[in-house]
Write a structure and sequence with these properties.
One of its GO terms (biological process) is polysaccharide catabolic process. The chain has 766 residues and is an alpha+beta fold. Helix content is 31%, strand content 22%. Among the domains are: 48-345, Golgi alpha-mannosidase II, domain 4 (Beta-galactosidase, Chain A, domain 5, Distorted Sandwich), CATH 2.70.98.30; 733-766.
């Protein structure tokens, strides 16, 4: 067994897989509240999508480049990429280009390590084509789901070639209908061996001029004979005319042993992918599995990523083969002969809630005595400053709401001073109501074309990219996560709020839009952002990208799952809460492999690991940068916010220490201006809470006055958090401060009584 594989030592007692799945419909049948109008003409028009007209169309999945505009950018199935060839010069190729990249294909940024980025060329090794494809060739797609798409290349009315595509597929499969197959190569053929008989038909061994070896399996449809291909010239390998059958192509880096694996699996491929998950009765462990509906009699070959291999269940781990293939940005994938990819997570964060939390202590409900003066002082200053909700950006408005929600939670659940708690909660409800009523400047609409909730201003041609591309489905998990977290705070402090007006339906609408848990929902796509194969979300929506989907902020990705979990708990939806817990567990694992690079990272090239944080992760590229700058505090900091309890779960101690030592130790952090300094010190609390506590304490007592807080950070919360993690101590303040707070509360009550008496007196005079 490889050292990289850590199979769970025990099998948790799981509930029945079919009866107790956590992927269930949400408890509302409302598409959107009455306040949200339906708009039919989204500015991005689906192209070539031939599916059920009422079915939601995924916007953030691996195949989105095929759904709109020119359809000319690749899709990445890992380890392969596929790109439609549309008669480009110099060879006038029509068909589907396929590619796989080895380590020697990596293109690094200039400079000494650690380099800013690494990427891969957009070249193809082979093109799956047919003589019948010509100038009028077009791409159409059917059978779309969160995990699968069927692409069709057509020249007239009948598909000439169909391509079932899904992540991790062991072969690139092409299904021909009454066509003359032509397997072209821009790399040129050096040698072709075959036909060689195999149990499903014949195979050919193709050696290209770049020294790579590819295998091609030819399986005739019923009523058709074995197809004999001939090498027409060094670039064209042509089959018989008017032939129907399946051609499967795979790259073989593993010699005879690898070829034996491919022989064993040839002829089989998936036509559908379904996900399921169950938890233990206490919710602390879960098993999730991707199930593949297979065509063919041979075992199904599937490639698993490193984070899958860490957590495979015992049965699936026995399906491992010797075959390994490099992916673009996810390290080495391992071939499995299986029609089910099943993983177990044994450390779900069930105790993680609103309170400070650490891996060793769990939820920390006690505030150290020495923290009371500073926390109460900050609370008195921040409670009156409620957000206005007047920002045009839903993203920045959401951040301000979540910031104030953390203050409200402390006032209501920690300090419990009745007047301050009630006033702050009512202030938050008042601002939140503006959004439920859709009164904000950038109102929301339900898009009936793709089926989702988007900002209305993006329907204007000049403003399609407003608010980070929200109307094009960019970053919805980041945007809506702040609103869902805020709603969870309100509902926890006042459960009756759920029954007021459209509050409940409005929040459920946001959840459905970014994290729908029902695979058959006709109103929103399943799991728009979170990719259950990759183990994290993709932020990019309806934007063409040669490098595929990308994500810039792992922390906001994790925060969206955290918000989902808390909202599920607040409304009593245990399946939603379990989905949030499971997503966090998977994210915590995948982030360690792909985004957070400790010194022993084995996924990324050594020339890149020294950056510590991947920055923007694409499917084809890893870039140590952000969309707004390259400063270290930007690149690291965007993966640290918002500064709330879930960070202690997804950001492991060793990584935080290595990243801090690389960029911010030895007082370098104090050279950083603005709110990023506060973000970095909040992150430092995970490994050095005393230093973080002292920093924020100086902010309370006048050495600085908020200029080092990021706009989503609350001083009250940061003091409570850093103190609870170990920054403050029990001490002599206990009696004095508790008594001081009692006096403060008594005075507020007295002032309220006096105001009430004065009001009555004025009324009597009138």
């Amino acid at each position: 067994m490889d050292s990289c594989m850590r199979i769970p030592l025990f099998a948790p007692k799981l509930r029945n897989t079919e009866e107790d799945t956590i992927f269930t419909p949400m408890a509302t049948s409302v598409v959107a509240p009455a306040e949200i109008p339906q708009f039919p003409n989204h500015p991005i028009v689906p192209k070539g999508v031939i599916d059920e007209p009422k079915k939601p169309i995924q916007t953030n999945k691996f195949y989105a480049n095929w759904l709109f505009a020119e359809q000319t950018s690749p899709i990445y199935t890992h380890p392969y990429s596929l790109v439609v060839q549309q008669g480009w010069q110099p060879a006038l190729n029509w068909g589907m280009g396929i590619s796989h990249m080895d380590a020697n294909d990596i293109m690094f940024a200039e400079g000494t390590p650690p380099v800013q980025f690494y990427t891969h060329p957009l070249t193809t090794s082979l093109i799956i084509s047919a003589r019948e494809l010509a100038d009028h060739t077009r791409l159409e797609t059917t059978n779309l789901s969160a995990f699968f798409i069927l692409g069709h290349l057509k020249s007239q009315t009948t598909p000439v070639i169909s391509f079932p595509c899904y992540q991790g597929m062991g072969f690139v499969t092409a299904i021909y209908t009454n066509a003359t197959a032509n397997i072209q190569s821009k790399k040129l053929y050096r040698q072709v061996e075959g036909p060689i008989a195999v149990n499903v038909g014949v195979k050919y061994r193709l050696t290209l001029e770049d020294d790579t070896v590819w295998l091609m399996y030819v399986v005739p449809s019923k009523g058709y004979g074995a197809a004999v291909f001939h090498l027409e010239d060094s670039g064209n390998f042509v089959g018989p005319p008017y032939w129907s059958g399946t051609v499967q192509i795979a790259k073989n880096p593993s010699g005879a042993d690898g070829e034996a694996v491919y022989d064993k699996a040839a002829g089989s491929h998936a036509t559908k992918v379904h996900i399921n998950a169950v938890t233990t009765t206490d919710g602390r462990a879960a098993k999730y599995l991707l199930s593949y509906t297979i065509v063919g009699t041979n075992p199904h070959l599937l490639f698993a990523l490193p984070h899958h291999m860490d957590s495979l269940d015992f049965h699936t781990s026995g399906k491992k083969t010797c075959l390994k293939m490099r992916t673009r940005t996810k390290g080495m994938a391992t071939g499995l002969l299986t029609d089910t990819l099943a993983m177990i997570e044994t450390d779900l964060p069930v105790t993680l809630g609103f309170a400070p939390w650490s891996p060793g202590k769990g939820e920390i409900l006690h505030m150290p005595d020495d923290a009371w003066p500073a926390v109460l002082y900050a609370l008195q200053r921040e409670i009156p400053i409620a957000p206005t909700g007047k920002l045009e950006s839903m993203y920045y408005t959401g951040k301000s709401l979540a910031k104030y929600a953390s203050i409200v939670w402390i006032a209501n659940e920690v300090v419990k001073e009745p007047i301050g708690a009630l006033q702050s909660l009512n202030s938050l409800k008042t601002v939140y109501l503006k959004f439920v009523k859709n009164w904000q400047a950038n109102s929301l609409v339900y898009d009936t074309r793709w089926k989702g909730v988007v900002e209305s201003l993006g329907y204007r041609a000049a403003q399609q990219d407003i608010d980070f591309g929200n109307t094009k489905y960019n970053d919805h998990h980041s945007h809506w996560g702040y609103f869902v977290y805020t709603a969870a705070v309100i509902a926890t402090c006042d459960p009756n709020w759920l029954r007021d007006g459209s509050n409940y339906e409005w929040v459920q609408m946001l959840v459905k839009d970014f994290a729908n848990g029902w695979q058959e929902d006709p109103t929103y796509p399943f799991s728009r952002h979170f990719d259950w194969y990759h183990g994290h979300s993709w932020a990019k929506g309806l934007y063409h990208s040669d490098d595929g989907k990308d994500q810039e902020s792992t922390s906001e990705d994790g925060f969206a799952s955290y918000a989902l979990k808390l909202w599920g708990r607040a409304i009593g939806d245990s399946n939603m809460e379990s989905r949030g817990n499971l997503m966090l567990a998977i994210q915590a694992r995948s982030f360690q492999h792909y985004f957070y690079m400790q010194n022993n990272n084995s996924v990324h090239p050594s020339q890149f690991i020294g950056n510590k944080i991947a920055g923007i992760m694409f499917e084809n590229k890893a870039d140590h940068t952000t969309y707004f700058g390259q400063d270290a505090e930007f690149v690291s900091g965007i993966h640290m916010l918002p500064s709330l309890p879930y960070l202690a779960y997804i950001r492991k101690h060793q990584f935080v220490k290595e990243e801090w030592d690389t960029y911010f130790s030895n007082n370098r952090v104090n050279n950083i201006r603005g709110g990023w300094r506060g973000v970095l010190y909040a992150n430092l609390a995970l490994i050095d809470p005393k230093a973080a506590w002292q920093f924020f304490l100086t902010g309370v007592y006048g050495e600085w006055h908020g200029e080092y807080l990021e706009d989503g950070q609350s001083m009250t919360w940061l003091l409570l958090w850093t103190a609870a993690l170990g920054g403050a101590q029990e001490g002599f303040w206990r009696h004095l401060e508790r008594r001081a707070w009692e006096i403060f509360a008594e005075r507020r009550i007295e002032r309220a009584r006096i105001k009430a008496d004065l009001k009555k007196e004025r009324e009597l005079r009138l």
